[in-house]
From TrEMBL:
HAMAP family: MetAP_1. It comes from Roseinatronobacter thiooxidans. Substrate binds at H89, H187. This is Methionine aminopeptidase. Pfam families: Peptidase_M24 (PF00557). The keyword Protease applies. One of its GO terms (cellular component) is cytosol.
Length: 270
């Protein structure tokens, strides 16, 4: 199917999905969330990120689904695993987790052609106090962004809700990566910025599907990409956290496609 020319689009090129499409997104989002729920018990000191990714790959296959990231722009893994000062796109490998490490695991699956994209934070062993605060602020910022996701509001309202809260907590929002439209494609318009001004940007409309996935740093917001061309880290080596949901705009708010069936979205609820 040609995503550009079939169906309803806004002038900004944002697809307006039909009510029936929500079911496909709920199914894909639910599988991604279940996989993240089930991986919780596999995160512990001594574990490698490669082994976590292997288990994720197995679960995607066992569900009869497809990984959206294997083969995406040359990426070869079913997850991104971003430890401590890694902001996003950490590549699973032989790195052994130690107690006090915090990590984001990001999984995107394709079910019946629909993309489910979600990430959340995990802890190996004991959660350090500073990291706990960072994780809580990042989680709260995502939820504030989701509360601002309703028809009539703009994408700037979402970014503003996230940025103003994070900065009030003396932390910083990463500017170099953003959320994105998705649906029957992985990445589509618009870029969902996690900073911005109230009232700016495209207006939200029923049927828009997109992710919100704020990355928050304890230090400065600047990032750099390592020589592997994927791993993004904080320039000042400060700790970074991220949570991601895929959502769909309804007549009066939004539906979250990637809610945790086990209530394990936040690491301290695990
Ligand atoms: N899941 C990531 C996102 O939130 C994208 C990962 S692309 C990969 O958009 F190739 F790095 F896996
Ligand atoms: Co995403
Ligand atoms: Co993701």
């Amino acid at each position: 199917m040609d995503d550009k020319h079939d169906g309803r689009m806004t002038k900004e090129g944002i697809r307006l999905h039909e009510r029936a499409d929500f079911a496909g997104m709920h199914k894909a989002g639910r599988l991604a969330a279940i996989i993240l729920d089930e991986i919780t018990d596999h995160v512990y000191p001594g574990q490698t990120t490669a082994e976590i990714d292997r288990i994720i790959t197995e679960k995607v296959m066992a569900a009869g689904a497809e990984s959206a990231t294997i083969g995406y722009r040359g990426y070869q893994h079913a997850s991104c695993i971003s430890v401590n000062h890694v902001v996003c796109h950490g590549i699973p490998g032989p790195k052994v987790l130690k107690s006090g490490d915090i990590l984001n695991i990001d999984v995107t699956v394709i079910v019946d052609g629909w993309f489910g994209d979600t990430s959340r934070m995990y802890v190996a062993g004991e959660l350090p106090r500073k990291a706990e605060r960072l994780i809580q602020v990042t989680y709260d910022s995502l939820m504030l962004g989701i509360e601002a996701a309703r028809p009539g509001n703009t994408f700037g309202d979402i970014g503003h809700a996230i940025q103003s809260y994070v900065e009030s907590q003396r932390m910083s929002v990463v500017r170099d990566f953003c959320g994105h439209g998705l649906g029957r494609v992985f990445h589509a318009p618009p870029n969902v910025l996690h900073y911005g001004r109230a009232g700016q940007g495209p207006r939200l409309e029923e049927g828009m599907f997109f992710t919100i996935e704020p990355m928050v740093n304890l230090g400065r917001p600047e990032t750099k990409v390592l020589g592997d061309d994927w791993t993004a880290v904080t320039r000042d080596k400060s700790l970074s956290a991220q949570f991601e949901h895929s959502i769909g705009v309804t007549a009066d708010g939004c539906e979250i496609f990637t809610s945790s069936p086990a209530g394990r979205f936040h690491p301290t609820w695990a």
